[in-house]
């Protein structure tokens, strides 16, 4: 039990240091939860907000422990797991993937975030460069965007022809069925955000020097093309949501909720040793994570 108590105090200190303006000296002077809360109250800090962040960090740690157990099972059993994270620009895809893999063994977990295709790749079968990135036995591959670029981004930005888009939409269910039949375990997330939240996040990137690299010409046009993105997105869902490869919608206006609940979903559908003894619930919140339904018209 001392180890657990020590972890809790270390987590509390780490959380407050990263989210509240406390000096090293102030943190060093307080080594209990009660003492820290007293210090916060004297500094006019929103204690409830600090505690909510602490609760998030605590739950994140529990889920990451389960992800490490999952990875171990994938390694030992030689399984191939591919997790696609799609969504509009600034939906929180990259940040979620970073939390997924934070404590995983990098030798058997990797992120696939391909740049725009080269001239040679443009002349290849569209799926070829993505097929080369599929997980090997014992590996988990996270796709930060995927072959679904051709479903939404490319037609909106005129990066592909109408014929190329049509051909892709016909081929992708067959492609994913081949992956399914060959034993690849595929999860497809769509992170859904509202137009207002997207604009807020774009503005945050513009003024934050640590995030300015995230802004691209495509991002700058996302708001103007919002409705066109919606049109192609809805077509993508209706034609590529299948029983063997369903779309999982994650409501991502609140980043921390989206991260935790997408982890829960992945852990709930992927089998692994020790799952029955998980340290937290693996049932995702149905108000945040849902399967796509063709009658649903409220997905952003």
UniProtKB/TrEMBL annotation:
It comes from the Eukaryota. Residues 53-80 form a coiled coil. Residues 55-276 form the Polyphosphate kinase-2-related domain. One of its GO terms (biological process) is phosphorus metabolic process. InterPro entries: P-loop_NTPase, Polyphosphate_phosphotransfera, PPK2-related, PPK2_PA0141. SUPFAM superfamilies: P-loop containing nucleoside triphosphate hydrolases. Pfam families: PPK2 (PF03976). The keyword DNA damage does not apply. Keywords: Coiled coil, Kinase, Transferase. One of its GO terms (molecular function) is polyphosphate kinase activity. The keyword Metal-binding does not apply. Belongs to the polyphosphate kinase 2 (PPK2) family. Class I subfamily. This is Ppk2 protein. The lineage of its organism: Eukaryota, Sar, Alveolata, Dinophyceae, Suessiales. The gene is ppk2.
């Amino acid at each position: 039990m001392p180890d657990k108590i020590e972890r809790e105090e270390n987590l509390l200190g780490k959380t407050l240091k990263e989210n509240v303006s406390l000096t090293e000296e102030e943190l060093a002077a307080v080594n209990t939860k009660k003492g820290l809360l007293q210090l916060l109250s004297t500094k006019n800090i929103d204690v409830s907000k600090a505690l909510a962040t602490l609760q998030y960090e605590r739950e994140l740690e529990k889920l990451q422990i389960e992800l490490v157990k999952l990875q171990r099972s994938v390694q030992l059993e030689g399984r191939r797991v591919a997790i696609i994270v799609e969504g509009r620009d600034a939906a929180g895809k990259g940040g979620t993937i970073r939390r997924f893999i934070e404590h995983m063994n990098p030798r058997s977990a990797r992120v696939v975030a391909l740049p725009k295709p080269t001239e040679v790749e443009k002349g290849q079968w569209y799926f070829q460069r993505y097929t080369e990135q599929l997980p090997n036995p014992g590996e988990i591959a996270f796709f930060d965007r995927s072959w679904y670029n051709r479903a939404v981004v490319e037609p909106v930005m005129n990066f592909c022809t109408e014929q190329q888009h049509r051909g892709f939409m016909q081929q992708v269910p067959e492609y994913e069925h081949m992956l399914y039949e060959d034993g690849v375990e595929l999860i497809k997330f769509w992170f859904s955000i509202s137009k207002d939240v997207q604009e807020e996040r774009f503005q945050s990137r513009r003024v934050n020097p640590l995030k300015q690299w995230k802004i691209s010409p495509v991002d700058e046009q996302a708001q103007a093309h919002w409705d066109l993105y919606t049109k192609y997105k809805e077509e993508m869902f209706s034609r590529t949501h299948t029983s063997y490869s369903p779309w999982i919608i994650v409501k991502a206006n609140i980043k921390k909720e989206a991260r935790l609940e997408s982890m829960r979903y992945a852990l709930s559908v992927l089998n692994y040793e020790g799952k029955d003894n998980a340290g937290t619930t693996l049932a995702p919140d149905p108000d945040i994570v849902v399967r796509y339904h063709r009658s649903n018209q409220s997905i952003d």
